[in-house]
Design a protein that fits this description.
Length: about 130
């Protein structure tokens, strides 16, 4: 289903599409295991997409993308509506878990994702398909 939603057409021959599908699938499964509500699950997937787009489209460095994550998570758990951000439907414990997940899934492997998005690769034709 995610393959269709992400509009991946070359999954069998594109390493990039396969890696991204794996990343989104792993994130979705993790969020389901966390028993996130539908709005939390949607917000989490949006956050994954936001951070990957910062890397792929905006060529953000790790430091800049961490700052963007900080801005997105700012105000979680605060009662003052002016300070709460877009992700205020997460509890403080859930926000910590999200940050931990992003750390082990994206930020620790940031150089690999930079290579995936910004290094030209020679594509080998494996079959006639």
């Amino acid at each position: 289903k995610l393959e269709e939603f992400l509009n991946f057409k070359q999954l069998k021959t594109s390493l990039k599409e396969a890696i991204l599908l794996d990343y989104y699938t792993a994130g979705f499964c993790w969020a389901k295991e966390m028993n996130f509500s539908l709005i939390q699950l949607s917000g989490f997937m949006d956050l994954l997409n936001f951070l990957l787009e910062n890397l792929s489209d905006k060529h953000m460095t790790l430091g800049d993308n961490l700052k963007e994550l900080g801005k997105a998570m700012a105000g979680i758990g605060e009662t003052d509506s002016e300070r709460s951000g877009d992700l205020n439907f997460f509890s403080i414990e859930q926000a910590k878990a999200v940050i931990d997940y992003l750390n082990i899934s994206l930020f620790k492997h940031y150089k690999l994702y930079e290579y995936l998005f910004h290094s030209p690769r020679e594509e080998l034709v494996i079959s006639k398909e």
